[in-house]
Each structure stands twice: as C-alpha cells, then as structure tokens.
Amino acid sequence: MHRDLPKRSDQRDAKIPPDDHPTRARRPAEPHAAQRLIKMGQHPIEAQHPIEAESHRIIAERIDLSTRPALHASIVARVIHATADLEYAGTLTFDPGAAEAGVSALRRRAPVICDTEMVRSGITSVDALCFLRQLPSACDPGSTRSAAAMRAAAEQHPTGAIVVVGCAPTALDEVVRLFEGGVFSPQLVIGAPVGFVGAAEAKQRARDCAGLATITNIGDKGGSAVAAAVINALARAAVSSVPLPLIGDRDQSRPDLVALETGGDR
Q1: 239 Cβ neighbours under 8 A, 6+ residues apart
Q2: Which of 21, 56, 81, 157 is the catalytic position?
Q3: What is the pLDDT of residue 14?
Q4: Burial (CB count <10 Å: 0-12, 13-18, 19+), residue 21
C-alpha cells in the first residue's frame, strides 16, 4: 500500500512564500521590544506581570504613596510588594539624591556588589557580584566572612559601585568603615540587613555616615527580599525614557557620585 510520507523540511520550506511575497498574508508586527522586556546587562527586565500589577493595585488601595517623589514611591511599592509589609512605607529612608544616583550608576553599568549569594539570587534585573566564594572558609578573628567579602569588593571596585546588603550587619559596618577610611567610595549603598543583633544599629551608622549615599530602613526588619526589591526597582527606573534632571554633585569631593534633587525623605 502506498503511504504518503512527510516531505523533507527543506521541500516544505521551499514552498512557503517569503514574508514579502504578494500571496502570503503579512504577519502583524510584533510589539516593540520595550513592551516585551528590557535588557540590563544580560538580564531581561520583564514588563509588569498581571500578578504584580494586581499587587500594586492593592497596595495603592491600602496606602497612599502619592506624596512621595515618584522614584521613591516606586521603590517603596516594590519593597511592599516583595514583603507584604506596609510598615516599609514609614521605615524606608532615602538620602537626598541617593536613588537618582543609583539609577545613573545602573545606566552606566556600574558593578552591583552583594553581601551574600541569597541577595544576589534575588536580583533578577542586573548582573550582580558576590565575593564570598572567593574567600577561604575561615576568616580573621574578630571579623566575619561577609565583612571580608566587602574588603575584597573594595579592592576590585574601589569607586562607583552599588553595594547591596540584605543579610549581614557586619558587611554594612565594614562598608562604612572602608568608606570612612577613604578606600571604598560606592555610588550607592542599599543597606537592609535583618536581625535582632546589630542590624538596626548598622543601618543607623550608615545613615549617619557623612557623604555616604544610602537607602536603608529603620529597625530590625529587612532581608534579602527587601534589598533585592530596591535594586530591581532602581533597574526598572534606569531603563525608563524619562531623563533624570541633574542638579549638581551631592558631594564635591566625590565627582563620581552623581547626586540629584529629590525632596528626600530624610
């Protein structure tokens, strides 16, 4: 019995008219790439998922962020979305110009340095670094591996980085110490370590450090989800077509730090 065998793929393809052939219906144009996803480094920044959109709608019903600068409001909303904790609307703090400096740094592909792999894993929008795996299993007496990782980061990226701390208070303390010692000058420090031992105090010391641009939260709460939410929100802002209005340097002694007027929360 004769059977109809499938034609070879090259035979099938040869009979399909090209896109511009008059007998072939033209396919509708695909949406612009910016409507599907935006790339920052090697990572796609996806358009807002319906679940995220619904979450933000609920947040807007429960708390009014309209009095905040738009960039700050978007960061606070992203943190609340990640944690389901409305308290962050009152405890998340911004140095004047810090959020805008972070956006500018991301647009220049500044390195993003994390205190732990857990924080790095939560950052889905940009390439991020963690130096813990480069360290020996043991650390110097009186120190921690997270603090040692920040020293390693300072050696490789002494200026212009974004530091994201979401787990270890000692890592944030080390960033402050290195900055005050003049050997580490990050563009922005996102400090949200969590815990009952040292976390609130480390964040306070970072906020009190003159010339260090910080986004932190007040109190014991925090964690990798909070820190990652902040940098992911900044990354989404960095691909926005809206230009940032440059007002002037936040610190004239640090020309690498782009600082902008915010009407900051602190």
Answers
A1: 34, 38, 40, 45
A2: 81
A3: 41
A4: exposed
Sort residue 198 into left (φ over 0), alpha (ψ -120 to 50) or beta.
left
Q: Is there a catalytic annotation at residue 81?
A: yes
The three-point CA angle 244-180-266 to 5° equals: 45
Query: How many residues belong to the chain?
Result: 266
Residue 106's SS3 state is helix
Place of tokens 């944690």: 83
| Confidence (pLDDT) at 139 | 66
Q: Which pLDDT belongs to residue 13?
A: 42
Give, to the nearest 10 degrees, the angle between helix 70-83 and helix 98-107.
Answer: 90
DSSP H or E segment with residue 238: helix 224-238
Q: What is the pLDDT, as a whole number, of residue 129?
A: 96
For residue 216, list its beta bridge partners.
93, 191
pLDDT profile of the chain (266 residues), mean per 10: 46 42 41 35 55 85 91 95 95 97 96 96 93 79 88 96 97 98 98 97 98 98 97 93 42 31 34
